[in-house]
Amino acid sequence: MASSSLPSCKHRVLVLALVVLAMAARKAVAYLYDDIKLDWGSGCSYYYMDGDFDTLALCLDRSSGSGFSSNATYLFARYDMDIKLVANDSAGTVATFYLMPDDLPWDNHDEVDMEFLGNATGEPYTLHTNIYVNGAGGREQQFQLWFDPTQDFHTYSVEWNPKYIIMRAEGSLWNAEEWATQGGRVKTDWTQAPFYAYYRNFRVTPCVPSPGVAWCGDEPPESTWFDQRLDAVALQRVQAENMIYDYCTDQKRFKDTGFPIECNTARINRKITAMAASLPSSMAVVTLLLTAMAAPPAVALLHNDVEAMWGEDHISFHMDGDGVETLALCLDKDHGSGFRSKRSYIFARYDIDLKLVADDSAGTVATVYLTPDLVPPEDHDEIDMEFLGNVTGEPYTLHTNIFVNGVGNREQQFRLWFDPAEDFHTYSVDWNPKHIIMLIDGTPIRVYKNDASRGVPFPTLRPLRLDGSLWNADDWATQGGRVKTNWTQAPFYAYYRNFRVTPCAPSPGVASCADEPPESALFDKGLDAAALQMARAEHLLYDYCGDQNRFKDNGLPKECTAN
């Protein structure tokens, strides 16, 4: 059985809350067989009357398990079912209660799962929960049940607030000895078969829209139906005492890609706080809360500010464990990938955090650069920071260049003084009418001055976007092209996050930054002359302005006597 997942964030609804409750059973209001149907393995399953309750006994023996589904599907509802699990030696068995839509292919289905993993006699059950969306799951949380779920019935519930999916409640009992108990080490003891799990008192509370509202999808976010109040203290206590696995804390599992976006714990905690007034104490015992809402993050979500430019199938977004959305660019033998900012600016400071390709990155080039729209190459402006990969253990080279009106050849190269693949570092370009400053973690490494009065080209006319890319350049990137890309190490990844732009804001009474006087202090922010001199003295590998041999016939470019 798949474990289901959060519905797509494309929809405008703010909150999805899944609430698992263990509470006192209530009197049945309808016969169970009127509401559900057996779907498979019905040979040894049966209905019987248990006091006031019509009860379904699902059976598992060596020949087959069994399963049922609700007769009706529902859009926005709370589902409750009373269940009593397999008693005694239940190792290898799995009883389930889950929501699932009709008629969707397996690779595109949604599912909300509660799976009860059996155990050897005397050992507690594990409740395994998961959520699938568009066929993708991997959102496991597990709880050690703090009561014996085989002694009596307990109520298990899923509360589903508006998301545009129609769900059907289903249940099953089946053999999963290859993984269910202690990772598959303990197998099903068939001498104890047949095994039975008991279901009764199924009820659904559909969403009823407020007067004057056409349907629940049109309810305002503050609707009281959506605001099912949670006991934050009970939630915290249960998770602290009974949660035994949470994918959102599995650092090892997500060490390469970072945590999924929903693991933004700061956002979850904000929602818990906002919803904190408790349910009645008889109700809230276990809570799984997932939010899909637009909460204000520490920085703007990256996908709001950038868009794929090429290689879209090699670009992905994810949320790191610290709550910062990250873009991963991928390079394999087929192609690389690139993005650009959605907006362009005339005169601004651009900052972005970048973590480069790890280990053997020879032949690869990751970039951050500014460039205009719809300008032919022979007339375009560009401000380049290109990170040239290297063999394992050798340092990266930062290759910088500046193009004005289609002419570049203004290369400066730096040997990075840290491992840029180990963690994120901030790379910045501060472009204003006075000069262009390139910085790493706030330390200036290069300054290109606007000396137009002496005929030095300088970009002033066109707004520039920030672009980023990861591509193969093994014909020149590493040791002049002598070291080629090692494709056995592919795919390669570079990670970008925390993009921010600070447009130039002119002084009071000045129409635009271009009208600021040259002596304006506005343009020298972040320019630490001593730090600049030290960085260049210690880390500059090549400077075109110092290449006498290259320019022996025509002399050095004009800017080399101005900078």
Structure description:
Pfam families: Glyco_hydro_16, XET_C. This is xyloglucan:xyloglucosyl transferase. GO terms for molecular function: hydrolase activity, hydrolyzing O-glycosyl compounds; xyloglucan:xyloglucosyl transferase activity. By secondary structure, the protein is mostly beta strands. The chain has two domains: 32-209 and 229-274, Jelly Rolls (Sandwich), CATH 2.60.120.200; 302-562, Jelly Rolls (Sandwich), CATH 2.60.120.200. The protein contains five helices and 28 strands. The protein has helices spanning 32-35, 232-242, 265-274, 529-539, 559-562; strands spanning 36-40, 46-50, 53-60, 66-70, 77-84, 93-100, 111-117, 126-132, 141-144, 154-160, 168-175, 195-206, 243-246, 306-310, 315-319, 325-331, 337-341, 348-355, 364-371, 382-388, 397-403, 412-415, 425-431, 435-440, 443-449, 465-472, 492-503, 540-543. The protein has an eight-stranded antiparallel sheet. Strands 14-17-26-19-20-21-22-28 form an eight-stranded antiparallel sheet. A seven-stranded antiparallel sheet has the order 15-16-27-18-23-24-25. The longest helix has 11 residues, at 232-242. The N and C termini lie far apart (67 Å). The model is unreliable at 1-29, 163-167 and 265-299 (pLDDT under 50).
